[in-house]
Design brief:
Length: 71
C-alpha cells in the first residue's frame, strides 16, 4: 500500500512494505548494538574486579611482609 505523506512543503510517496523492511533492519542493528554495549560493559566490570582483587592481594602481601620484618 502506498501513502502520501506531507513533509514540510513536499509530497512524498512511501511504500509501507519497504518502510517495514527498513524498520526490521534497523531493529536488528539496534539489537546488535545493544548486545555489544552490554558485552563491553560486562567485560569492563570483570576487568575492574580483577584489578581490585589484584590490589587487595598486593596489600595483603605487603602487610604480611611488614609484619614478618617487625618480628
Amino acid at each position: 500500500m502506498i501513502q502520501i505523506v506531507h513533509h514540510r512543503h513536499f509530497r512524498v510517496l512511501i511504500d509501507e512494505n519497504s518502510s517495514k523492511q527498513n524498520c526490521g533492519g534497523k531493529k536488528k542493528a539496534m539489537l546488535a548494538y545493544g548486545v555489544i554495549q552490554i558485552s563491553a560493559t560486562v567485560v569492563s566490570a570483570i576487568s575492574l574486579a580483577a584489578i581490585a582483587l589484584g590490589f587487595v592481594a598486593m596489600k595483603q602481601e605487603m602487610r604480611s611482609e611488614t609484619y614478618q620484618s617487625r618480628n
